[in-house]
Structure formats: C-alpha cells, structure tokens
Amino acid sequence: MKPTKALRKKLDNWKEKPIVAPGVHDPYCARIAERLGFDTLYMGGAATSMSRLGMADFGLATGTEVQANARYITSVTDLPLIADSDNGYGNALNTMRTVKDYVRAGVAGVHIEDQVVPKRCGHLKGKMVVSLDEMVGKIKAAKKVINEEDPDFVLIARTDARGAVGGGLDDAVDRLKAYRRAGADLVFADGLTSKEELATICTETGAPAVFHPTAISPRLSVAECHAMGVALMLYPFASIHAMAVAVWEFLADLKKDDTKAQVRFERQHEDHPLSDLRRLFDLGGLAQLKAYEREFIPAEEVKAKYGRQTVGI
Question: Which CATH superfamily is domain 3-236 in?
Fold first, then answer.
C-alpha cells in the first residue's frame, strides 16, 4: 500500500485510534522506529536543521536541504512519513512547488505554517505571521497540487499565531477555521501553553487536530489529547534529543578515559539489540545487501570476496 493511502486510512480512523509519530532526524533513526513497531514517522524542520546544518531552527535550512533529508528517510522505509514543510519556502507559488516535490519524494503528508519568511521554530520568541488571506491562498494552492498529484496526500495547516507578535489564541482559532475551509485535512496550533488552550483549539475549530508535547507546551499524554480531539501526536525531537544527550555523555567519557570508556560502554550495553557493530550493520540492511551481491554480482567475484576470508564481520 502506498504510504499516502496508508496514512489516509489512519486519518479516516483517528477517532478510534490516534496517530502517533516519533520524530526521526535521519534514515537510521527511521529504521530504529520501524523496528520498534511505530507505524508512522515524522521529520521535523528543527531536527533536520540541527542534524544536517548543526544550526538552530532559525529559517536557515532551505527547502532543498529539508526535502533531501525526507528523501533519504523514505528511501529506507515504506512507513508513512509526515514532514515539516515550514512556510512553503515562499508564497503560494513556491508552496505549490514545495508540495509537489514532497509528493514525489514519497512523503505521505506535510504541515505548512503561516509564519513570514524567514521563519523560526514555533517555540521561539520573535515569531511573525503573514496575513490570513495569504495563508489561505497557500492552502488552496497546495490543495490544487495534491488533487493533481495524489489526492491521498495529507495536508496539515499550522498556525503560529498563538505566540506571534500581535497574535493570540483567538487569532489562532480564526485562522485554523479558515485554513480548514480552504482544504486542510488537519489543523495544528503550535506553541500552545496549556491543556485548556488545546481544548479550545479542538472545540472551536471542530477539526481533527495535531499536537506535540514539547518545549513550552504541556506534557499531555496521547490519551488525554485524543479525548479532546487530537488525531495526530508528534514527538519532533524524539530521536535527536536522545541522540544528542547520549553522544554528549559518551564523548565526555571518551575524552577522559579513551578506550576504557568504549569498553565500559560495550559492556554496559552488551544485552542491547544494538550492542555491537554487527548488529548496527544488520539494522542498516547488511543481510539484504549481501543477498543482493549473491543474486546480481558474478559468482566468481562473490567467491573471491568471501571464499577464503576469515577476518571481518
């Protein structure tokens, strides 16, 4: 089943079962999430900016860079991937190209926000939003492309009006109502600061909502959010935050104790599913790659590679 159709089926059934998508900032983390049993994935713009550029989400990552990361992820998994599409990287026409490129990259859905260009992370201060009319035009333009390319592709309209300069919760509600009328499948108010604000968004818009319990937003459970009307729960920093903390701790130990630190790490995790180099390679598809060698590479070459070799993984 195509990822877009799979995601559409999940969305059609959200009242019975909410969609939960952990953030994966690269293809390897996507493999881990899939192995652990998640059935939907999310690629955030902030995690992409930090992992690919080493820079905070301040609108510096280009559409080309973010979409390249999405392609890398969809190349290793058939799970539906929902991607951050920032503000469409320009006006309505830029948005049309952005959405078309995402559809053709194998992504199953995107969210587009109403921040100005350049944008910034929705949980940072200093946000500004475009006019309601301009964003409605972007939603309609995106929907036109979707209808032409793949009608199952899911479109999420995000507003950053709650914490924007001159904005507020009422503005966020009004905007999401308009975005829903323009064709959005789900609505997403970023930067909410309480359970009550989320309840207001869900009740007042009357549309399936998106929420992520991160940064300035409350740490609400999937069950709590689902009861209010949340169809999709995102965890944008799931992989990159865990990775950053773990790498920091290990490298600090390595700096202090060199090889002893590596030995301690290996012993500490000897029962882990990714305990050694062989298991790391296996998760990366090593067995399948070797099978392809046997199937497609001349037998004499395969024999030469492996016939007498006794050293190696």
Answer: Phosphoenolpyruvate-binding domains (3.20.20.60)
